Amino acid sequence: MKKLVCSFALMILGYGGFCQTQNYQTYTLFMYSFTKFVQWPPEDAQGDFEIAVLGDSPIYNELKSMADKKKAGVRSIKVTKIASMAEYKKSHILYIPSDWSSKFQDVANKVGDESVLLVTDQANGGNKGCVNFVNNKEGRLAFELNQAMMTKHKLRASAALSRLAIIN
Known about the structure:
By secondary structure, the chain is of the alpha/beta class. It is 37% helix and 24% strand.
């Protein structure tokens, strides 16, 4: 476990200074790590591990590439792109890009309290989702962990993930 935490920390530090296109690779590494360090309720532990991407975002192709090579434990990872919340079906992770931030409340209403990890790209640290990508003081990619949202969605972050996050 210690080795896994160290590897995750190195990923965070090692990829921080890249350009925006490269950051989507880093976002993908973070999101893959969330599959290991977030616990979903037992009823959500069957079938494929589902990741949905809302709207057009470069992260979609990165996530698809990752899903072709990796698994969430023993489960295959399935990545889908949805144009609107009308297309949303239950997923484990829902990525909400910054251009959807003004519609976050609509997204939250549709998802309700389902056990879905809402991951936002909030450059200003909006802290609306369960996990929010932000830039830290050094300009490196970091993430906020919103404990209240995690609880609302019946999710638990491991202690290792909590130690690496900005806690709100």
